[in-house]
Amino acid sequence: MRQAPVIRFDDVTKTYMRGQHPAVENLDIEFSRGEFVFLVGASGSGKSTLMRMVLKEVAPTRGTVYVAGKDLSRLPSWKVPSLRRDIGMVFQDFRLLPSKTAYQNIEFALAVIGTPRKVVRRLVPEMLEMVGLEDKGKRLPHELSGGEQQRVAIARAYVNRPSILLADEPTGNLDPSTASGILDLLTEINERGTTVVMATHDRNAVDRMQRRVVEMVGGQVVRDEEGGSYETPAPVSVISGNLPDDSAHREEHPLDDESLVADWDGAPEQEPSEAEPALAAARHDAEPGSGVPVRDILEEDLIDEREAQRVRDEDPFAEDDEEELR
Ligand code: ADP
Ligand code: MG
Questions:
Q1: Which terminus of the chain is more solvent-facing, meaning fewer CB atoms within 10 Å of its CB: N or C?
Q2: How far is the CA of 262 from the centre of ligand 1 (A)?
Q3: What CA–CA distance (Å, rounded) separates 322 from 303?
Q4: Can you tell me which atom of ligand 1 is nearest the CA of 58?
Q5: Which residue range is the domain that position 94 belongs to?
Q6: Which of 42, 38, 62, 34 is nearest to 51 (CA)?
Q7: How far apart are CA 44 and CA 276, in angstroms?
Q8: Site to substitute for ligand 1 among 39, 216, 220, 256, most atoms within 8 A of C-beta
Q9: With a threshold of 0.85, does the pTM exceed it?
Q10: Ligand 2 ion: nearby residues, β-carbon < 5 Å
């Protein structure tokens, strides 16, 4: 079932600060085109760092990361937007633009790459429908429940039909039944051909899906199991032993900006729909510098639908080689 790797880590170590324990250490792993992979492990185990290296937001200290066969360290900075355009990203805290409607949030992802208006007018409603929000396009994020906001975020991440979707604890703020709907959506996206890598503490999700599970402890992969579940029946190594999820480790990771909300494992005690918009809004005070991937507004060419389709069907870098290099 596995095909050519779309992501490959070749002996990758990332140390953020000299003298610190590496966030990711000697990572050797491949993700194949079309796979659905769960990344599990306590807070601070390196899941987000792994994902950020795929986006070239973080450079490895040692080793090589390949995306679609290309060594990212050799990817010139002007090609990084094109890399990111082909990688959708979904976060635990949604990261929608708070002053834009659901429709506009999705539209924005198309507008920044110069998609013609006619195509936008067709694609945005199509996306809203795919995520089950066709009647809520005019709502602002704070007028949507947490689950609905995450649906908008997924629509925005998917509207360019990326070949990879990275989801960093996408259900971490959601109650179990809402989370399960989000998982269904990610499954659908995966079935349409996108490689999905999802970091999660969501035991239900992992156990229900029975997909590949990669478990990290202290920056290292301690388990890589097809059809796995959240917990392994027998620890594969001493350190994999059944470490509790995370709470005990929070203090050790003051720089992990997710740690305040990222890592609780159970259902929230109240309906999330009330608490979350406020939370999300609070976290958006810093926009637009808050890590929202505002992509390549200036340098992208106009793409029409056929072009977009062709690009989707190809190596994500191919268009650069052929056209932008001229
Ligand atoms: P996870 O997503 O599994 O919680 P992270 O990749 O966020 O793990 O973090 C792995 C380790 O790297 C942690 O010890 C964390 O504190 C550290 N770390 C993450 N980001 C940074 C950063 N920007 N600067 C310094 N240390 C970081
Ligand atoms: Mg993380």
A1: C
A2: 12
A3: 14
A4: 23
A5: 34-60+85-253+289-316
A6: 38
A7: 23
A8: 256
A9: no
A10: 47-48
